[in-house]
Design brief:
The protein is of the alpha/beta class. Helices cover 34% and strands 17% of the residues. The protein has one domain: Uracil-DNA Glycosylase, subunit E (3-Layer(aba) Sandwich). The two termini are 24 Å apart.
Length: 202
């Protein structure tokens, strides 16, 4: 299965993102083998930096390092997939500024909801940053559930067990992009969250 052939955006209504950066995973996935879904913020400004781009894209570099920090013996996104972890973004287009409007997160959450429905055996959701957390809360609210992750600073929320669609949800920090190499304290927390998710599927 290729996700970009199953779900997608038709109308591109959002005004605060770059539609020319729109991207969904174009890689062969075995849906029933996916046990972890990692959701980061938005598509990169350069599609060559995306998780599944050829070569050694930036998103691969930082995410592989994050999994290595967590103790996983991986060297590529394919190795991460082989562990049963699928990587995607909450917003499928690139950012035009620092933040993303709430309306855009809501709009793109419809695509994310369809995307997540493709994977029946997920045991852990790694929510990498505020945009991913907001997107999952929007999906939960739309389906009549309470919000998955409470409001508050992420470092204060880490620790308690949260659940989404039967899987554990981990509020964490953004691991995709150059800031990963700068913020060492967040990098340690990211490693702890990924390690906890990996323990769930062992």
């Amino acid at each position: 299965m290729r996700v970009n052939r199953c779900v997608g955006c038709r109308d591109f209504p959002c005004t605060d993102v770059r539609h020319d950066c729109y991207i969904l995973p174009d890689v062969e996935i075995q849906p029933d083998r996916i046990k972890i879904v990692l959701i980061s913020e938005a598509a990169p400004a350069d599609p060559a930096d995306y998780y599944y781009a050829a070569g050694n894209p930036l998103f691969q570099q930082t995410t592989v390092q994050a999994f290595q920090d967590a103790g996983a013996a991986v060297e590529s996104v394919q190795d991460i997939l082989d562990l049963g972890a699928y990587l995607t973004t909450a917003v499928k287009c690139g950012k035009t500024g620092y933040g993303i409007q709430a309306a855009t997160i809501v709009e793109c959450s419809h695509i994310l909801e369809q995307e997540l429905a493709l994977f029946p055996n997920v045991q852990a959701y790694l929510l990498m940053g505020d945009v991913a957390i907001k997107a999952i809360n929007v999906i939960a609210k739309r389906t009549g559930q309470a919000r998955v992750i409470p409001a508050g600073a992420t470092y204060k929320l880490r620790g308690p067990a949260y659940f989404f669609r039967g899987g554990r949800a981990f509020p964490s920090y953004l691991q995709a992009g150059p800031s990963f190499f700068i913020e060492k304290s967040k990098r340690q927390m990211i490693a702890e969250d990924i390690a906890a998710a990996l323990r769930l599927i062992d």
